[in-house]
Amino acid sequence: AHIVTLPGDGVGPEVTAAAVAVLEAVAEHYDHRFTFEEHLIGGCAIDATGEPLPAASLAACQKADAVLLGAVGGPKWSDPNATVRPEQGLLALRAALGVYANLRPLQVHPALANLSPLKNEKLKDVDVLFVRELTGGAYFGAKTRTADAATDECKYTEAEIERVVRRAFALARERRHHLTSVDKANVLETSRLWRNVVQRIAPEYRDVTVEHQLVDSMAMLLLTQPGRYDVVVTENLFGDILTDEAAALAGSLGLLPSASLGEGKRGLYEPIHGSAPDIAGQGVANPTGAMLSAAMLLRHSLGLEEEAQCVEAAVSQVLAHGPRTRDVGGHGNTAAVRDAVLMAVE
Amino acid sequence: AHIVTLPGDGVGPEVTAAAVAVLEAVAEHYDHRFTFEEHLIGGCAIDATGEPLPAASLAACQKADAVLLGAVGGPKWSDPNATVRPEQGLLALRAALGVYANLRPLQVHPALANLSPLKNEKLKDVDVLFVRELTGGAYFGAKTRTADAATDECKYTEAEIERVVRRAFALARERRHHLTSVDKANVLETSRLWRNVVQRIAPEYRDVTVEHQLVDSMAMLLLTQPGRYDVVVTENLFGDILTDEAAALAGSLGLLPSASLGEGKRGLYEPIHGSAPDIAGQGVANPTGAMLSAAMLLRHSLGLEEEAQCVEAAVSQVLAHGPRTRDVGGHGNTAAVRDAVLMAVE
Ligand SMILES: CC(C)[C@H](C(=O)O)[C@@H](O)C(=O)O
Ligand SMILES: CC(C)[C@H](C(=O)O)[C@@H](O)C(=O)O
Question: Where residue B273 falls among pLDDT bands split at 50, 70, 90?
Answer without folding.
Answer: very high
